[in-house]
UniProtKB/TrEMBL annotation:
<dbReference type="InterPro" id="IPR003739">
    <property type="entry name" value="Lys_aminomutase/Glu_NH3_mut"/>
</dbReference>
<keyword id="KW-0004">4Fe-4S</keyword>
<protein>
    <submittedName>
        <fullName>Translation elongation factor P-lysyl-lysine 2,3-aminomutase</fullName>
    </submittedName>
</protein>
<keyword id="KW-0949">S-adenosyl-L-methionine</keyword>
<keyword id="KW-0408">Iron</keyword>
<keyword id="KW-0663">Pyridoxal phosphate</keyword>
<keyword id="KW-0479">Metal-binding</keyword>
<feature type="binding site">
    <location>
        <position position="107"/>
    </location>
    <ligand>
        <name>[4Fe-4S] cluster</name>
    </ligand>
</feature>
<keyword id="KW-0251">Elongation factor</keyword>
<dbReference type="InterPro" id="IPR007197">
    <property type="entry name" value="rSAM"/>
</dbReference>
<dbReference type="InterPro" id="IPR013785">
    <property type="entry name" value="Aldolase_TIM"/>
</dbReference>
<feature type="binding site">
    <location>
        <position position="103"/>
    </location>
    <ligand>
        <name>[4Fe-4S] cluster</name>
    </ligand>
</feature>
<keyword id="KW-0411">Iron-sulfur</keyword>
<dbReference type="GO" id="GO:0016853">
    <property type="term" value="F:isomerase activity"/>
</dbReference>
<dbReference type="InterPro" id="IPR058240">
    <property type="entry name" value="rSAM_sf"/>
</dbReference>
<feature type="domain" description="Radical SAM core">
    <location>
        <begin position="89"/>
        <end position="307"/>
    </location>
</feature>
<feature type="binding site">
    <location>
        <position position="110"/>
    </location>
    <ligand>
        <name>[4Fe-4S] cluster</name>
    </ligand>
</feature>
């Protein structure tokens, strides 16, 4: 067993393990964790400096997760847009394949809260069905492995998936989305990188949300991937009270460039049930984007994007894409549709 696998076994999953560490009553936390599982690596837990800080809020269950029953579990209609279980085909030329349903840390703001940590990993049977679907759709040239976290699969399982994809000639690029660089950096072994290199062009998207997540260990993990010739991008989720501050966001983007990670997306929080307490207003997001553009390297500016409900797709939010109409915003989708968005109060 690898060191990363041993470390995964020592994750904190029982809320009462937190009480001696932080001297707190974990009854509330336990109630929440029954519905939305908790899992925190010892490494990530070690980044917490005090209860309530930016790391804490991302991983410790909060009773506020229950105070959001108005939202839907799957506002993006991912299940509806799924031609075979585990595959989302929303755009013309690319698909998302949910190859894993587990993660090293369960983020409290996760957009796939409905399934991540709750269901079993994709079976081999459905894996064949997904590969057959992709093989039968020559328009698919870009396959994004997501989940859950694809890097929680063992190397040989991941290798089977990648080699299956590489046998399909029209698949040009493969992308992998992972948060292990942030939550379990020892997962990025030299063995993993050696295996990945065989299937180029491979792109990896990481998921850093706060400057404190950029440590010597996470920098080493990213360096290994970059040295294997893998271009690295980053997807940040805009989170209230965590990174919804122009200075914090600017520092995060600058530190990402230092570890050879290009900021790709800054995501407006999806309207997913159980995550309302993390949602910021779009005005705040636009302000943060204005705080980046021109004030620091152009390379440090991601696209600020919202994922429209019902699977209409991601739209970059720039001042000219947004029209104000009374108390709501009108946003143009990538196909020219206009969607009405009810913004939250300015924070
Ligand atoms: C985000 C996403 C993609 C990839 O979008 P890009 O803009 O190409 O990065 C593809 N499919 C689905 C369903 C997505 O949510
Ligand atoms: S790593 Fe990604 S998929 Fe996993 S819990 Fe966090 S946000 Fe969700």
């Amino acid at each position: 067993m690898n060191r990363w696998q041993k470390n995964l076994k020592t994750c904190v999953t029982a809320p009462d393990e937190l009480s001696p560490l932080f001297n707190l009553d974990t009854e509330d936390i336990a109630q929440v964790a029954k519905r939305y599982p908790m899992r925190i690596t010892r490494y990530y837990l070690g980044l917490i400096e005090r209860p309530g800080d930016a790391i804490w809020r991302q991983c410790i269950p909060d009773p506020l997760e229950f105070e959001d029953q108005a939202q839907m579990e799957d506002p993006l209609d991912e299940e509806l847009l799924s031609p075979v279980p585990g595959l989302i085909h929303r755009y013309p030329d690319r698909v998302v394949w949910l190859v894993s349903s587990v993660c090293a840390v369960y983020c409290r703001f996760c957009m796939r809260k409905r399934r991540v940590g709750c269901t079993e990993a994709t079976e081999t049977g459905t894996r064949q069905a997904v590969l057959a679907y992709i093989a039968n759709h020559p328009e698919i040239r870009d396959v994004i492995l997501s989940g859950g976290d694809p890097f929680l699969l063992e190397d040989d399982v991941l290798e089977e998936i990648l080699s299956g994809l590489r046998q399909i000639h029209h698949v040009e690029i493969i992308r992998i989305g992972t948060r292990t660089t942030v939550t379990l950096p020892e997962r990025i072994t030299t063995g993993l990188c050696r295996m990945l290199k065989k299937f180029h062009p491979i792109y990896v998207n990481t998921h850093f949300n706060h400057p404190k997540e950029i440590t010597a260990a996470s920098a080493r993990a990213c360096a290994r991937l970059a040295d294997a010739g893998i271009p690295l991008g980053n997807q940040t989720v805009l989170l209230k009270g965590i990174n919804d501050d122009p200075q914090v966001m600017k520092r995060l983007m600058q530190l990402l460039l230092k570890i050879r990670v290009k900021p790709y997306y800054l995501h407006q929080m999806d309207l997913v049930r159980g995550t309302a307490h993390f949602r910021t207003s779009i005005d705040r997001g636009l302000q943060i984007m204005e705080g980046l553009r021109g004030h620091t390297s152009g390379l440090a500016s991601p696209y600020y994007a919202i994922d429209l409900e019902g699977g209409k797709g991601k739209v970059p939010l720039l001042p000219e894409y947004v029209r104000r109409d009374d108390d709501s915003l009108l946003i143009r989708s990538y196909r020219g549709e206009v969607v009405r968005y009810r913004d939250v109060e300015k924070s």
